[in-house]
Amino acid sequence: RTRPAALVVTHDRSFMEEVCDDLLEIDRGTMHYYPTSSYEEFLTLRQSRLDLEAEALQTAKQKLKKEQEWMRRQPQGRQTKQKARIKEFHVLGSSVAAAASRKAAAA
């Protein structure tokens, strides 16, 4: 047996806490689920998610910097590994740039 559901868009926090069981947030084109109706708990969970995203972005930036140094040295030999690593460098660069632009758009 399924439970009925309704999608409610509101800015009224007290109404939201009384009516809703769970919260969904659409942020920068991505939907995020929060298993709470408390606005305060939502803010805490959201900040945790944003902190994790920022940490992941920082880690990716550090790895990108390390890979840029490797690219500057232009190592020779083991061509197969070199090609794969260069491809990974370009993919990482694209993902870091996209994440940074999403973060800048949110600010």
From TrEMBL:
Pfam family, any one: ABC_tran_Xtn
GO molecular function list: ATP binding
Gene3D superfamilies (UniProt xref): P-loop containing nucleotide triphosphate hydrolases
Family annotation (PANTHER family): ABC TRANSPORTER ATP-BINDING SUBUNIT (PTHR42855), ABC TRANSPORTER DOMAIN-CONTAINING PROTEIN (PTHR42855:SF1)
Region called Disordered, residue ranges: 65-84
Lineage: Eukaryota, Sar, Stramenopiles, Ochrophyta, Bacillariophyta
ABC-transporter extension domain location: 24-91
Keywords of the record: ATP-binding, Nucleotide-binding
The protein's name: ABC-transporter extension domain-containing protein
